[in-house]
Amino acid sequence: MDKKIAVINGDGVGPEVTAQSIKVLNAIAAKFGHQFLFVDALMGADAIDKTGNPLPDETIAICKQSDAILFGAIGHPKYDNDPSAKVRPEQGLLKLRKELELFTNIRPINMYDSLAHLSPLKTKQLEGVDFIIFRELTGGIYFGKRSLSEDQTYATDECAYHTYEIERVAHLAFQYAQTRRKKLTLIDKANVLETSRLWRKVVQSLASKYPDVSVDYMFVDNAAMQVIINPAQFDVVLTENMFGDIISDEASVLTGSIGLLPSASVGNGAALFEPIHGSYPQATGKDIANPVGSVLSAAMMLDHFGLNEEANLVREAVNWTLTHSFVSKDIDPINSYGTSAIGDLIEDYIKRNGKQAATNNSALNASTII
Ligand code: IPM
Ligand code: MN
Predict the structure, then answer these.
(1) Nearest CA, atom 7, ligand 1
(2) What's domain 120-255's architecture?
(3) Residue 67 annotated as catalytic
(4) Quick check: CB of 90 below 6 Å from ligand 1?
(5) Catalytic residue status for 164
(6) Neighbours of 223 (CB within 10 A)
C-alpha cells in the first residue's frame, strides 16, 4: 500500500514523540511491503516563529494532498499567560480541523494491568474499564461567534449546533458502538442548554436506526463524577466539543498516565492522528517524554488505512514494552527509559515480530540497570 503522510511535529515534545512513530511506521512499511512517504509541515508556535502564521497555507495544502496526518503537540507557555496575544498556536489546530472538516475526535480509554498502580483510582474500580469517547470537533462554543465590547468589560462565546453536525458524529458513534458492547452514552446539559436539547432530540431520533445499541443520557456534571465513581459503565461516549475536551482529559488520568493515550480526528478530509498529551514544554529536548501516545496514534492511523494486522503488531509491541517495564519517567521515575530508547524497542519488536526481542538493558540507555 502506498500512502502519503503529512507530519506536523508541532511544539514542545511533539518532534521527539513523532520521531518514534515515524521509526515505527517505517518498520511496519519494511515488514509488510508498504510505502509510506512522509512530508513535513508546520503548525503551532513553531509555525508562528518561522512564518508568523500558526497554520501556513502550505501546511493546509500538504494536508489536503495527504492520506493522513501525524501530529505531535501544540502550545507554548509564552502564549498561555498572555490573554492579549493576537496569534495563538492553538488557532492553527482549530483552523486545520475546520479546513479538513475533521468533525469527530476519537479517544479510546484502555487500561493496562501492569500500570494499574499508577491510576488515582483503586485497582478494583478499574476492572472492566474500556471505553471510547466520540467528541464533536468542529462546532459548538469553539467555533461560535465571539465578541468583546469596546470597553473590554463584556465578552461572549456562542455555542451553536446544526442538526447535521450532530447527526454525522452520532452516526459514527452508533456504528462504532455496534462493533463493541453496544452501549452509547450521550453526555450533555439538556436541563439547561438549548443546544443540548437539540443533541438529545437528534440522538433519540437516530437511535431507532440502531436498535441493537442501547442509548442512555447523562448530564455532564454527573458524567464528570461517574467517570471517577464507575468508569466501567461506559462503552461509547458521545458528546459535543467542549464537554468532550474536558471529559476526555479527565478520563485520560484513569490509565495512570496521559502520555499513553492516542487519538484520531476523522471527518471528510485526511484524518489526523495525535497523542492526547500536550506540548509538555518542561520536557522539551530532554528525551523523557512518553512516546506511547504518539505510537498508538500511529496504530490508529494504520487501522484507518485498513491495515489491522499492522496496527495490532504495533499495539503488541507497545504492550511488550509496558509489561517489561521499558517505560518513561512519567510511569517509573526511577527506572526510566528515554523517549527514543522506547521507540527503538518498539521498532525492534516489530522487526523481530516479537521473537528474541532485545532485553539487554545496558544496551538501551536505561537510567538504572534492572
Ligand atoms: C485538544 C486540545 C485542543 C482543544 C487545544 C490545543 C485547542 O486541548 O485537542 O483536546 O481544546 O481541542
Ligand atoms: Mn484538550
Answers:
(1) 90
(2) 3-Layer(aba) Sandwich (3.40)
(3) no
(4) yes
(5) no
(6) 23
